Amino acid sequence: MISWTHGLINRLVKLADGFFLAFGTLLTAALLGHPTLLQTLLLGALGIVLYVQILAVTGGYRVERYRLGLAQVVDVAIGFVPALAAVAIAYHAFLVDPVGGIGWVGGWALVSFAAIILGRFTLVRWGVSLADSHAVLRRNVAIVGVRDRVEAALAARDQSPGSLLEVVAVFLEDEAGPLPESIGGVPVIGSVDALFQYIHKTPIDVVIVALPWESTSRINAMIERLHRIAADVIVPLDKNSFNPRFAEFAMVGGVPSLRVLYQPLKGSLGVLKRVEDIVVSAVALVLTAPVLLVAAIAIKLDSRGPVVFLQERVGFNNKSFTIYKLRTFTYDPTDDGSLGTKRHDPRVTRVGGILRRLSIDELPQLVNVLKGEMSIVGPRPHVPNMQVSGRQYYDVVREYAARYRVKPGITGWGQINGMRGGIDTVEKAARGVKLDLHYIENWSIWFDIRIMFLTVVRGLAGRDVF
């Protein structure tokens, strides 16, 4: 029921966006004229379909984002800009008399964008506030199982203010002796049988079965008992059995299966990210060309050796590629980079130290992005057989290989969270991989824009750059 409520709200927001976009189209036609009614309807339909589909693909239709003002503006812009481009092309390509086309398209953009924003900040926000006030978005959760697994489930729950899950009751199975009054601040109501009476007074939307993963017979028996409850029943995966980071159930050839890994950024998402990479890298190369020229001259005057440093790195699907960087070390053709960079590294030249602090040495990687070997945002590319504390990453960080499921990036979630510079401990290495995987799991255009924005605002330079 609750999932349906979330879906209903998202569908209503789509309808609201479409309505306000249609209103903007008709208002523009009434004010500026030019297209016939049929042409106006076709242009408006093109804009609406593209806008809604792009927002759906990029994650713009999510209940938690409707509460955030800036996030809504960014979401609307992400969907509106491609729709605007399509409407402009269609206007000039297919209309018989495209007189005043620039003025009409510009007017349509201003009026329609303003109409959608107005709708988001009035009707949509009011609707979400109304839903919040009646608690229709909140999911009441009950946990049933044995004490140690219940405690683990409670410890892992999201207790942030915006969380839509609230654990309201615990029911213990096979508990010897008197039941505790509460666990982790949540009241213990009784045994599992008490749940069936409890739901008559308090609606339960989600039931978490907290039993040992290896006890399949007990889990199946519990699920059978819970069939009588109209609620989502969830069995948490046991991290000690296998890594469930990417796990989800799927039908494969009609067979119920557990997908334990998935291909990130496939289909339209991959196309969207590639377009982002091409546009951003091309613009950045033009803007930074003078900086690159000055840096190249300074490198040649400071020390012998080439201006551009070429090195083998590991990229998408563990495929090696040659990365381009401005040389910041003294020239040594035998250095393969596997040992990384140390604090106060004597190999860093005078000019190189400045370039590294300002991250100017990374700019040639924009060429790698244009070639499709890298992305603007992604995990930083490592050299083959990368080491930390004298041991290879693969040996000390369990999920290290998963970071190669996307293209490496010039900047990333790790870089803006303190991982810029050398990684000299196993703990830092593990934290870096954890941040990389967080990015892969939560990718969206908005996430990339956020990372690029923070990269510019904070700068890649920091106290740990050496």
Automatic annotation (TrEMBL):
It is a multi-pass membrane protein. The keyword Nucleotidyltransferase does not apply. Residues 273-458 form the Bacterial sugar transferase domain. Gene3D superfamilies: NAD(P)-binding Rossmann-like Domain (3.40.50.720). The keyword Cell division does not apply. GO terms for biological process: polysaccharide biosynthetic process. GO terms for molecular function: phosphotransferase activity, for other substituted phosphate groups. InterPro entries: Bact_transf (IPR003362), EPS_sugar_tfrase (IPR017475). It is found in: Membrane. Keywords: Exopolysaccharide synthesis, Membrane, Transferase, Transmembrane, Transmembrane helix. Coiled coil: none annotated. One of its GO terms (cellular component) is membrane. The chain crosses the membrane at residues 12-32, 38-61, 73-95, 101-123, 278-299. It comes from the Bacteria. Belongs to the bacterial sugar transferase family. NCBIfam families: EPS_sugtrans. This is Putative colanic acid biosynthesis UDP-glucose lipid carrier transferase. It comes from Stella humosa. The lineage of its organism: Bacteria, Pseudomonadati, Pseudomonadota, Alphaproteobacteria, Rhodospirillales.
